[in-house]
Amino acid sequence: MSKFIVHPIGKVYNNENGTFIEVEKSYIPALQALDGFSHINVLWWFSDFDDEQSRSTLQTKQPYKGAPEVMGVFATRSPVRPNPIALTTVDIIHIDYENGIIHIAFIDANDNTPVLDMKPYTPSFDRVETPGVPAWCSHWPKSTEESAYFSWEKEFNF
């Protein structure tokens, strides 16, 4: 089996001061020319679930109401998975290029979560005009903007 070495490029700070990504000093030059992009795709590490039990769990009981009784973790956005890698598209509020701090609107990561990489969101590569989804989740919002006003608590079985 191949081994991969991944070095975090920064951390998420999600606290009473807001939500930020702080890029390690050595990676600040990689922010150059990010101006003009309204969103970035953030790859981050589900560090709270990086243990043998979480990594060996391949199926879960119905996490979403109306979903199949058992689901494979690849059919969920669960943090419990073989490689605890997460992907979230985030809205950029402001970038402090000097200090390597990106103020963002929201990310579903905890405070001090390691960030693995970031890529600019570009509709030509990241947007699907008519995505297909199973019937049990077809009533979910069609965008991240709509998701902010959706009653997600009614959708989960936990």
UniProtKB/TrEMBL annotation:
<dbReference type="Pfam" id="PF01980">
    <property type="entry name" value="TrmO_N"/>
</dbReference>
<comment type="similarity">
    <text>Belongs to the tRNA methyltransferase O family.</text>
</comment>
<keyword id="KW-0949">S-adenosyl-L-methionine</keyword>
<dbReference type="InterPro" id="IPR036413">
    <property type="entry name" value="YaeB-like_sf"/>
</dbReference>
<dbReference type="InterPro" id="IPR023368">
    <property type="entry name" value="UPF0066_cons_site"/>
</dbReference>
<feature type="domain" description="TsaA-like">
    <location>
        <begin position="6"/>
        <end position="130"/>
    </location>
</feature>
<dbReference type="InterPro" id="IPR040372">
    <property type="entry name" value="YaeB-like"/>
</dbReference>
<dbReference type="InterPro" id="IPR023370">
    <property type="entry name" value="TrmO-like_N"/>
</dbReference>
<dbReference type="InterPro" id="IPR036414">
    <property type="entry name" value="YaeB_N_sf"/>
</dbReference>
<protein>
    <submittedName>
        <fullName>Uncharacterized domain UPF0066</fullName>
    </submittedName>
</protein>
